[in-house]
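User: For my dataset I need records formatted as: sequence, then structure tokens, nothing else. Please produce one.
Assistant:
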Amino acid sequence: MAVDHIFTTDEHHTGLEVNKIYRNEYRFPIEMLVSGRKYSGVEATLNKQHGKKVLMEFILKLLSYGPKQYKPFINQVLQRFTWLDLNDSLEILLLDGVIQITFKNLKPRKTVEWLPKIVQLDPRAMEFLMQEKPDINLELTKLEKSVTNLIIDVESPIKKYVLRWIEETEIKDQSGSLIADLTTFRKYKSIVLAIAHYIHLKEHGKKLPLRYLSNKIWDQPRLLSTYKNEIALSAGITLDELDSVLLPDINNILHASLILISPVEELQKLVVKLLEPEIRQDTVLFTINEMNYYIQRIIEIVGDSENKVLNDFLLDYYAFNNNLIKSDSKESQLSILNNFKNSINAFKKQMLKIEHVKHQFEMIVLDEIGSGSFARVYKIFDPELNEIVACKVLFPRSYFKQVYGNDGDEYILRFKREVRLLTKELQHRNIINVKKIQLDGSPFWFTMPLASFSLERWIKDNYDASEDQRIKIFNQILSGVKYLHEKDKYHRDLAPNNILLYEKNNVLEVKIADFGLAKDPKSVSFFTGLSKKGYGQEDFTDPQQLNNLADSTNLSDIYSLGALLYYLLSSKLPKKRFYVSVLCQSIVMKAMDTRDKRYQTVYDFEQDLIECVNWNKKD
């Protein structure tokens, strides 16, 4: 073998996991095992657009017999393929978690000089390649039943093609070229089921992420996406038509996955509840019964009675349960509860490493719908709830440290305060409600109902809306702000893109969102009460607040209400109020006047608005 034919890799690559072996007599490591961090599946890797599928299949066939010494392995492959293609293939297979490579350090006493030593299959790939081949006849029977249930009552013209594919056990395009058959059963089944679901969903006006469907069929999130071109070609539709029903995702571009395993979270909440002071004994017993339910749910989700992580956790739980009931002192109970709380935290991290559990609860991110100074909002599919929601995701801590230095923690505190307000203190029909929360580890996020549109979008799309409809929208905004002020809270960022509209049966329901700048005058935190960054949106923000966020009061929200009223009635920015008048112009001007001349309460603002609207109705 030529000296040049040495595979090298960057051990610091973010996509690689590196484990080094040291010995006391050597200054430097003697070996390192390199593998890919993420694993999308063997077929997903083989079907990428790299043109090296044949070579990769040959490599996997050789390695399926066991680990290979690097030199003889390379020599054998080079008898049929070029070094350039082989080098590229090894890099792709390694990064995708399909193979592992052990490197030997030639000079562990003096420096690091890595030389590849052993090439082998990654255990995840080995498990896939070594699994028993399915009974094709049984699989075809199951496939036919699934397809029939999906399309039996559907009138789609594509239906006849799917039924023909089942009957003939092969898929051909319109020109008669073979796309898949039983020799490529996984591909065949993927195309048939994907198109059957497409037909069913389209007929019923529904949508599902392709990633979700791939998890349901194969327990592999990216597998179906490798066949997207073939699926569209077989069905005789465009990729855009396919994407309009089987939705694409952007999970692969996220900083980190968004996963919340709800039974574990609920278990954690119950432990926190038991830690509350002065809890009654009957409440303790009732709470433990609730915990038993979530323990059973966790067992069902893992679905593997031999799983060591689960069994170790169950031992912790049974010991906790037994010790808590027998405990005769408050101090002892607190110690038992805190120990079990730590056990849950450790178990949560281990659960995320179980692939099928991760796939079951990972949020599928469909699109980015907004971005601010410290968070992004995504449109996501929640696989557990089987619905599309919005998700607000805080930027990673490293971003804030880099941009804001020591003040970076301010933004994290703002986010946590926003979650606390929306979950514990603010419950009103015109204020956004939170569905799921993740504050235990980066990234922090929470989900909320997905709006039909923001006020900003609605104004642009409904330029001819009546004054009556616009006033009805504003009254709902006013109702939410009045509730806030009654709770002695100020929003401080009331602006069109923070007012969300939900259309239900042609009726608009308004909800105030984005409480990242919300102020609680009772707050003792400098950051959360007296922050000086992120003043608000200039056109809708009290000028004194723009100069110093710490100076904001209830009068700041009243200024913003005046600006929103003008914006709603005119479809123009508030700075145009000096040139273009609207209904109730005097109310707008007073609300946006200097603080000493402004409405002093939301109630005063509301009373004048009612009188103005009623007066104009008489005319």
